[in-house]
Design a protein that fits this description.
Elements lengths: L18 E2 L2 E5 L5 E4 L6 H26 L15 H32 L1
Antiparallel strand pairs: 1-2, 2-3
Helix pairs in contact: 1-2
Length: about 120
């Protein structure tokens, strides 16, 4: 009965596993299909978010220092104090990068939660 054409091969080839929606399925020890996920698919978004937040902090610190070290037109001494407008501009420029970075990190966390 070894050469019978009607026998079913119970040995499953690991490369011929079925896919559902692009997600590869595996069979566990009981024969049930389980999803095979890529590890850390949301980490790319989290890394981009961290880099963006760091860049926003650097921009904010640079603008605060640049505004504080501005020299007045008629005097050679520096102002050594920031006006409200300068603080708002520096803070706003930093927030332009920090807020999307935080949103990007949140998207990465949501993707990781949905993959579980």
């Amino acid at each position: 009965m070894k050469n019978d054409e009607n026998t079913v091969d119970t040995n499953e080839d690991q490369q011929d596993l079925p896919t559902v929606g692009g997600v590869r399925l595996e069979t566990d020890s009981n024969g049930n299909g389980t999803e095979y996920r890529k590890a850390g698919s949301g980490t790319v978004y989290q890394i981009i978010g961290i880099i963006t937040i760091i860049f926003g902090v650097i921009v904010g610190i640079y603008l605060f220092v640049a505004f504080a070290e501005q020299q007045q037109m008629l005097f050679s001494t520096s102002k050594s104090e920031l006006t409200f407008g300068e603080v708002v501009i520096a803070f706003g420029a930093a927030m332009i990068f920090i807020v999307p970075g935080a949103i990007c990190m949140g998207i990465g966390k949501i993707i990781d939660l949905l993959n579980k």
